[in-house]
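User: For my dataset I need records formatted as: sequence, then structure tokens, nothing else. Please produce one.
Assistant:
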Amino acid sequence: MVRGVVSVRVRAGEGEGVDQKGTMMRRIILAAMSACLLVGGLPHAQAQQRQGQGQQQPGFTPQELDRMSQQRMEERGRVDHGPPVPLSSVPKLQLFQPAEPWVCKGTGDWLPIYAAPSKSSAVVGKTLSAIAVGGRNVNGFSRILTNGGTIGYVPSETIHEYRSDVNPGSTCSVEGVRANGAPVFAYH
């Protein structure tokens, strides 16, 4: 085992000037830093010494952890969380009919949604693979209903028929809107 002791003797004489006090403070700080480095290196030196002697690092092996987990499960017993909640008690999402018709279309993920039909306008969101498109094109942009319930614009050339990467052949429709105006999609 490595042990170290650092001692510092400081003698302050009478009539010392500011320079001598500053030198004395530097020596104290240097001694304190040396002690920290020495003490901080002890665990590492001890670990290397143990490895050299063939001792195992502290902690549990995976087999011991598995055994302790199994033992804890046996002590605790089976946990009964009760019957599942009936679907009739889950509040149903209240849908509203939108003021204008919206159609489900596809686009690329994470494309910018603009506040106005111009690429120089502010970006108000990002697209997902399904978007609610309505109205006619303006300056090469299509109106969409964002997930926040506001109107936004995306370039018309980025819009196509909805295609699912997960379930090819499935279709999408706008079922309605939430209370905040966000579209609700139905996948068939």
